[in-house]
Design goal:
Helix content: 40-55%
Number of helices: 9
Radius of gyration: 16 Å
Number of strands: 0
Distance between the termini: 27 Å
Strand content: under 5%
Structural class: mainly alpha
Largest sheet: none
């Protein structure tokens, strides 16, 4: 990572996370949970402490793009119209762009940009599939499985084609 003196526009991830907390406490709490589970997954995979810390930040920042989506839409309860859903889907790409703009690592950028990709290629924003999906995005998207199944979600069920083999 570049030294701070060489990258004066670098915004510490904690400040970006704090911005998310101020805008939408519910998304903030969700993001903290994703970060926590991403770090657990990293540790379980033996990726090392430094990577686990980066995974925690990636999970905490994965929904940062929702800052660029109208608040009424992010906070909407109930079913989205097709038009609303299309707007909301942009948060992943916007999140990657926000993190790039703030000179974050490529690992954080890719986690935000690709956390809605699916192993079978039916995700968004790019329809990546399989190993095309960056590892950090694969891990941050696992949180939904972990919430229901615990760490045993590492062994995918044959019917769960949207999750990879890790």
């Amino acid at each position: 990572m570049p030294r701070l003196s060489r990258c004066p526009n670098l915004v510490p991830p904690r400040l970006l996370i704090q911005t998310l907390e101020e805008r939408d406490p519910e998304v903030f709490v969700h993001s903290l949970r994703v970060g926590h589970f991403a770090a657990l997954i990293g540790a379980r995979l033996g990726l090392g402490e430094a990577t686990a810390v980066l995974l925690e930040e990636a999970g905490q920042l994965h929904d940062i793009g929702k800052l660029a989506i109208p608040a009424f839409l992010v906070q909407k309860q109930g079913i989205f119209t097709p038009q609303e859903y299309e707007i909301l889907k942009h948060h992943a790409g916007l999140g990657g762009a926000i993190l790039e703009e703030h000179h974050q690592s490529q690992a954080l950028v890719s986690a935000a940009r690709h956390h809605h990709e699916r192993w079978d290629g039916r995700g968004f924003p790019y329809g990546l599939q399989g190993q095309e999906i960056p590892l950090f995005a694969q891990i941050t998207s696992r949180r939904r499985c972990l919430r229901r199944h615990g760490l045993r979600a590492f062994v995918p069920l044959p019917s769960r084609t949207h999750r990879g083999p890790r």
